[in-house]
C-alpha cells in the first residue's frame, strides 16, 4: 500500500470512532506496559472504545506518528483529536479531565 492509502485508512479510522486507542496488542492482551496502563484507565471509565493493534498493522505503526506528530504508542484519539500517550491519559484521569471527555464522546454501555 502507498503512504497515501495508509493515511486515508488512518483518517477513516479516526473519523469512524469517537474514542480510539492505537496500541500495542489488544485490550485483552496488551503487549506493552504503556498500552496496558491506557486500557486500564479507559476500562475504569467504563465506556466502549475502539482500538487498533499496531503490531498487526506495521504500515499504520510507521505512518501514524508522522500524521499525529506524536512518536510513541499508545495514542488516544477522542472526537478526531489526539489526546496523547499513556502519561497524558493517566494525568488527565487523575485530574478528573479524561472521564468527562470520554463520556461526552461515547455511549454508555
TrEMBL record:
InterPro entries: Glutaredoxin (IPR002109), GRX_PICOT-like (IPR033658), Monothiol_GRX (IPR014434), Monothiol_GRX-rel (IPR004480), Thioredoxin-like_sf (IPR036249)
Residues the record lists as binding [2Fe-2S] cluster: 32
Domain Glutaredoxin: 19-83
Keywords, alphabetical: 2Fe-2S, Iron, Iron-sulfur, Metal-binding, Redox-active center
NCBIfam families per record: Grx4 family monothiol glutaredoxin
Family: Belongs to the glutaredoxin family. Monothiol subfamily.
The protein, known as: Glutaredoxin
Species whose genome carries this gene: Moraxella macacae 0408225
